[in-house]
Amino acid sequence: MSLKSYIAFDVETTGLNPRENEIIEIGALKVRDGKVAERFMEFIRPRFPISAAITNLTGITNEMVEGARPRCQVVPDFLDFCGDDVLIGHNVTFDYSFMKCSAAADGLPFEKMGIDTLKIAQKVHSSLSSKSLGSLCEHYHIENKSAHRAYHDALATAKLYQTLAHYFEADYPKLFQPVQLTYRIKKEQPATPKQIAFLTNLIRKKGADIAWDPDTISRSEASRLIDGLLKG
User: Which CATH architecture has domain 6-180?
Assistant: First the structure.
């Protein structure tokens, strides 16, 4: 029997690495008895500017997130919204990894059971050339008015899950069972003395106004700041 109560969610991010990139939008819907009971839609103000490539993909601009709350305020609200619900996502590990890293940055746990519509599609639609959310929505005539915006993708994922369950759950019941979602956060390495010296020099040369702490900055954060300053 397909799940009637769950949370379908999606995040938009500044890149693909959950330890280096940031969430800029969370979209989710709480489904109760097969119907949308509550929605969660919010931008997050990132610490670093959104690149043109990400704006082209998502339509999210730096101006749109300018007045948004920071991660440390939005993520706890989203965790409250999730409660003990099962999460459903398309390639759910991607969204979960970002949420887990974002929660962990503020010392919050995020242990969840989940169902991945991509995994289901890979099994039941092995002959389809693409199993992307867009391709599957096209296949099933599911309308997604704003693809690559978090709430609309989450809504499309919920519709896709219910459609797949309707057609395939009886034959593949195991595929539709929630499983423990896992993502191991590797410990961040501190920035090297060479990176810190180079970054200090670069900030002075560029006259950049950047808040950072040489004692706590990680290797990946230092790399990102250096890259940003060299491009700017």
Answer: 2-Layer Sandwich (3.30)
